[in-house]
Every structure is written in structure tokens, then in C-alpha cells.
Amino acid sequence: MFKKYQLTILGILLGAIFGYLYYYYVGCATGTCNITSKPLNSTLYGAMMGGLLFNIFEKKPKKNIE
């Protein structure tokens, strides 16, 4: 399973790291921002975006219709 989805898993991990780094260095000064007000929100959003982005580059098997 890991071999099949390795790019997506890598994207999730990198996205989570960058999401947390965004919270840490940029964040939200007022606390009213939905995504960056809490580290969990920012990390999960980054993981989701990273997974979606890296999933684009996975090769899908071609279907033969004959």
C-alpha cells in the first residue's frame, strides 16, 4: 500500500510540516483567522493541500477498453 501511495503520503507529511511552520512564523495575531489561529488547524490544512497537490503527480493505470 505504501508503494502505491508514496507520493501522496509524502505530500501529506510535507504539507503538515509546512502548515505548522506557516502557523509558527506567520500565524494570526488576532486569533480570529479560521485556519491559522490554532496549530492543529494549520497543520491539518497543510497536510490536506500537500496530499492533494502531490496526488496530481501519481501515475494512474490506464484502462483498456476494447
TrEMBL record:
The keyword Transmembrane applies. InterPro entries: DUF6132. The chain crosses the membrane at residues 7-25, 40-57. Keywords: Membrane, Transmembrane, Transmembrane helix. Pfam families: DUF6132. This is YtxH domain-containing protein. It comes from Flavobacterium bernardetii.
